[in-house]
């Protein structure tokens, strides 16, 4: 511990009351002293004598140094406060005898020390150095530590003065630390614990493959909360700061990001921030879409798809009688298909021709029984088309669209299906296949409320979207995130109304078969549209 020695001219002051001592010293033009912290340190009643003794021990020594008067405070001073108490602590400074009103600058944590400055490091959370101007400095007369500590614990704050060595300043080494760092130990105790509250949510983003992205969250709480970032509900190893930075982003990094914020008083999870990665699809592609549903008499199931980059052969099927082989006794007896480009009927089929049997095998579709009343056709498709599946009576029908071409640069970039969503086994179920190599970035949506804009009545008011690989659920969404709006525009999907209860998510999928289930929240029913888009 530094033991102060006082110049003889100051000894007569030591018997003065502490308040007078502080006043006298603060009126001395060459110096400004630590004031106000005695009330914080001496929390127990100690009387004026103890306060005067404290003031004497804290003030330290006054030295003459090349025309400057330097005030040194005692090392290892401990300041005891409670969380939420606002101590006012004046920062010790140096001045020049001949020009007592000349400003002294203060540099806060980490800045380069200019001549005649103070560096202040490791302030407890909640305490600040007020009065910093646009240049990052403080005026001689306003240097202080204030605020209210927000976190219990022990913090060691250092204050280091940089002084002029005398004479004209001509080079950097004319300035040096005058006394070495002053250390103040803050012992912050007590304070009521408060559960975390998120004050700024993470925001979803769209980034190109190989790029960088940063998610951040702001939260309050006492004690200071901890953070754990998650991707699709799984904790990310080492991601325990308020900021999550990702570099060289790949398709596998896409997904829904959240952060769990916790302390001893509680836990809260942020809203979802979806990351979409563009241009990362490698050699993977959409290969087919299938929709199975129960239809009433005179009901129509609508399936849409888009071929981009040229024309491709597309095999379209409506299976009814063929489903009996899978144990479905309530299958539709005689489905038929109609293919439209916009509102123009391009082709139709009632009962499939046997010449298509080799095409079934080529794309991996199950066989139809010879002479059955199932429907099928192969057409060369370019651009957007719609399939209408109808039947002469009620029953279960499976409608399928397969990419039947090989090679080439054109691709099936969007598939969709619209039908009534029921409950139980009558929810809307769509299956699709990702073929090729690498992974495929897909935008998947379940649209209900927005359909009213297109004149559809009886819509599903609040659709919920779930994605399955086999029996394993890999992603879900109830209400879509506004962060996905740029992705909608990128793939050519129509915009959704802000705050609507439509559902959407972006997911990166490896080659394989997947199913999408659309159901109404709370068992509600109505018309809904499920869409699968390739994200470029």
As a percent range, the share of strand residues is over 45%
Number of domains: 3
CATH-defined architecture of the largest domain = Sandwich
End-to-end Cα distance: 66 Å
Counted beta strands: 36
User: What is the makeup of the main sheet?
Assistant: 14 strands, antiparallel
Number of helices: 5
Question: What is the 3D form?
Answer: elongated
Mean pLDDT: 74
**Regions with pLDDT < 50 over 5+ consecutive residues?**
1-74, 92-113, 133-142, 167-176
Please compute the radius of gyration using only Cα atoms: 37 Å
Helix content: under 10%
CATH class of the largest domain, named Mainly Beta
The CATH topology of the largest domain is: Jelly Rolls
Structural class: mainly beta
Description:
- The protein is mainly beta.
- It contains 5 helices and 36 strands.
- The strands form 7 sheets. Strands 23, 24, 25, 26, 27, 28, 29, 30, 31, 32, 33, 34, 35 and 36 form a 14-stranded antiparallel sheet that branches.
- Strand 20 and strand 21 form a beta hairpin.
- The chain starts with 17 loop residues before the first helix and ends with a strand.
Please specify the SSE layout and strand pairing:
Blueprint: H1 18-27, H2 37-41, H3 47-59, E1 62-65, E2 68-71, E3 77-82, E4 89-90, E5 94-96, E6 105-108, E7 117-121, E8 127-128, E9 144-147, E10 153-164, E11 175-177, E12 182-189, E13 194-200, E14 205-208, E15 213-216, E16 218-222, E17 226-231, E18 234-235, E19 243-246, E20 255-263, E21 266-269, E22 273-278, E23 285-295, E24 301-319, E25 335-341, E26 344-349, H4 357-363, E27 375-391, E28 395-403, E29 411-421, E30 428-435, E31 440-447, E32 463-469, E33 472-477, H5 485-491, E34 503-509, E35 512-520, E36 526-534
Parallel strand pairs: 3-12, 6-7, 14-22
Antiparallel strand pairs: 1-2, 2-5, 4-9, 7-10, 8-9, 10-11, 10-12, 13-16, 15-19, 17-18, 17-20, 20-21, 20-22, 23-28, 23-30, 24-27, 24-28, 24-29, 25-26, 25-27, 29-36, 30-35, 31-34, 31-36, 32-33, 32-35
